[in-house]
Amino acid sequence: MTGPTRRDGKVAGIVVAAGAGQRMGAGRPKAMLEIGGRPLYRLAADALTQGGCGRVVIVVPPDGDWVAQVSAAEPSAIVVPGGATRQESVFCGLQVLHDDPPGVVLVHDAARALAPPVVVSRVVESVIAGHRVVTPVVPVVDTIRQVRGDDSALLDRAELRAVQTPQGFAFETLWQAHQAAVASGAVSTDDVSLCELLGQRVWLVDGDQMAFKITTSVDLAVAEMLAKPVEGCRIIPR
Asked: What's the rounded mean pLDDT across residues 20-32?
């Protein structure tokens, strides 16, 4: 895979942009903050579109008038209110797709707004190839210790990978995983983990360091620097 996939109506993407972003301390939802003049949710949605998604659902905070605001700014997207948790918000996105389900669905956090379209393409193509649950990962570069009470143990980072988004799924697999979670009360911040509860195997593809999670004001400042022109070019494509 060397470039973005052709846009396909049977491939849909869900941008999870419903979080309050309390750790950012910006006084507004994190996904609505801007990098290079564009909100995080739009950068994430653009990456999905450029990587092969023919339909994009943006899940926004349920309070306020975010549905109206984002719908006006993104007329080609489906905009729906989210829930109280990330898991509930993803399910809101799945529900709006269910009447005309895609074959492939990607779930992407707006907080990973700089994920390159080529990563999206890798995920899409892997699901199309028959892997029903796919996630991009990158090697762990820090030394990691596992803490249990007063004890700790060094983990072998050669065996560890950091998980990123977008994660990709056969639509029916993710739909069943979320319905099962609602029925059982299972809770997870990761859709892949919900699928694993159904016995699904997870396929890994290469992620990208640009898909780092924007959580704090420092992360936002770094992302803003990456959006500035460098020697006549811009790292984030417009």
From this structure: 77
Burial class from Cβ neighbours inside 10 Å (0-12, 13-18, 19+) for residue 134 reads buried
CATH, residue 32: 3.90.550.10
Return the ∠ at Cα 174 (arms to 170 and 179), rounded to 5°: 145
The residue behind tokens 């997207």 is 77
Rama region for 173: left / alpha / beta (φ>0; ψ in -120 to 50; rest): alpha
Strand partners, 35: 38
CB neighbours of residue 44 within 10 Å: 29
Output the CA–CA distances (angstroms, integers) from residue 70 to 12, 26, 57, 80, in the order listed.
18, 19, 11, 9
Strand ranges in 61-97 using DSSP code E only, listed in sequence order:
78-81
Residue 148 falls within a domain, yes or no? no
> Between β-strands 203-206 and 78-81, what pairing exists: parallel, antiparallel or unpaired?
unpaired
pLDDT top residue among 28 and 53: 53
